[in-house]
Amino acid sequence: MPLNSTAAPAGRGQCQAIDLIQKIDSIDGHWQPRVVAEMNDYQFKVVKVQGEFPWHVHAETDETFVVLEGELRIAHRASTGGEGVIVLRAGQMAVVPKGIEHKPSAIAEVKMLLIEPRGVVNTGDGAPGARTVENDQWI
Ligand code: NI
């Protein structure tokens, strides 16, 4: 099927193995998340990233990052003042709670899995920007 189709693949909803790295390797470009599966109202998205992503926040949902390859940094800051940076390496994950501003970045390429509710905008709640991608693109 075409890479940028918004239609779910025929295998959706079936019991099947999904090769995350193989899916990621078929994506053109960085910061282009693609849905590989859904569980109830949640989507599993794969993405490869390199460089800096803008600061953003999701007021209504937590967001899970699972690193498969590489080293991901997530700077974060709360409106109440707390801030810091977490570093995730292959096999590690983190949940960014809703309402926490965050900024993912990667010096070298990182391959990862994101888990979040269907409909979440990758750049958060503000106006769309250069990094905003269309939702619900399956691969
Ligand atoms: Ni986010």
Q: Can you walk me through this structure?
A:
β1 and β2 (42-52) form a beta hairpin. Strands 1, 2, 3, 4, 5, 6 and 7 form a 7-stranded antiparallel beta sheet that branches. The protein has one domain (10-117): Sandwich (Jelly Rolls). The mean pLDDT is 91. The protein starts with 19 loop residues before the first helix and ends in a 22-residue tail after the last strand. The radius of gyration is 15 Å and the shape is globular. It has 1 helix and 7 strands. The protein has 139 residues and is mainly beta. The chain binds nickel (II) ion (NI). Nickel (II) ion is lined by residues 56, 58, 63, 102, 124.
Q: How many structural domains are formed by the residues?
A: 1
Task: Give the N-to-C terminal Cα separation.
Answer: 8 Å
Specify the overall morphology: globular
Strand content: 35-45%
Question: How would you classify the quaternary structure?
Answer: single chain
The fold-level CATH name is: Jelly Rolls
Extended strand count: 7
In the CATH scheme, the class would be Mainly Beta
Bound chemical compounds: nickel (II) ion
